[in-house]
Write a structure and sequence with these properties.
The chain is an alpha/beta fold and 201 residues long. Helix content is 32%, strand content 16%.
Length: 201
């Protein structure tokens, strides 16, 4: 998994509440078990018209936000079914940080396992960040995970809280497999000792 330390990028505003996982990645795209290739389907029902052409009014289709790496979204982001394809699609598109006042628990935890930083802020802080994000190409935010700070285009700073273990995992690029591999020496030693003391097992 990619490490997450600092990110300075364009932030796209999505001022809607209850953006669920079916909106993020509709059910027809869940057949794959690959983490790549889902970026083109991200928000597809809002992003494309019925004929397959782009919906020009959708934020990620606007020139200023086509390369956005940050989403500033309304309350309860990632609610609905617990599909891991949702963070896969976000990451494949290039979104590596989502800022909201709250997240659905399963989506929130899935983000950390896929190299995405979900940041929880207060409603007042979200209003300020949403205003920053609505500046188009000038909507650049800087995220520093080590110091747990968001810096806006005008220099304002917002501090955020994060679980220490989840922070450690993102800073070091550790998913569940990576965490297990950190213990490989202990696992090998345990297996060797069992082979000696219980050769029949």
């Amino acid at each position: 998994m990619d490490k997450f330390d600092k990110l300075t990028a364009v932030a796209a505003p999505m001022p809607f509440i209850n953006i669920d996982t079916d909106m993020i990645i509709p059910k027809q795209y869940l057949k794959t078990i690959k983490r790549t290739g889902l970026g083109t389907a991200l928000f597809s029902e809002m992003r494309y018209n019925d004929d397959g052409s782009e919906n020009e009014s959708f934020v990620l289709n606007k020139p200023a936000y086509r390369n956005a790496n940050i989403l500033v979204a309304g309350d309860n982001f990632g609610c609905g079914s617990s599909r891991e394809h949702a963070p896969w699609a976000l990451k494949d598109f290039g979104i590596t940080c989502v800022i909201s006042t709250s997240f659905a628990d399963i989506f929130y935890n899935n983000c950390f396992k896929n190299g995405i930083l979900p940041v929880v802020v207060t409603p007042e802080e979200l209003d300020k960040l949403m205003d920053d994000a609505e500046r188009g190409a000038n909507a650049t935010l800087s995220i520093d995970l080590e110091t747990q700070q968001i810096r806006g285009p005008d220099g304002g700073v917002i501090n955020f809280e994060i679980d220490a273990f989840k922070k450690h995992c993102l800073l070091n690029g550790l998913d569940d497999i990576g965490l297990t591999m950190e213990k490989v020496a202990s696992i090998d030693a345990f297996e060797a000792s069992k082979t000696e003391t219980r050769p029949w097992a």
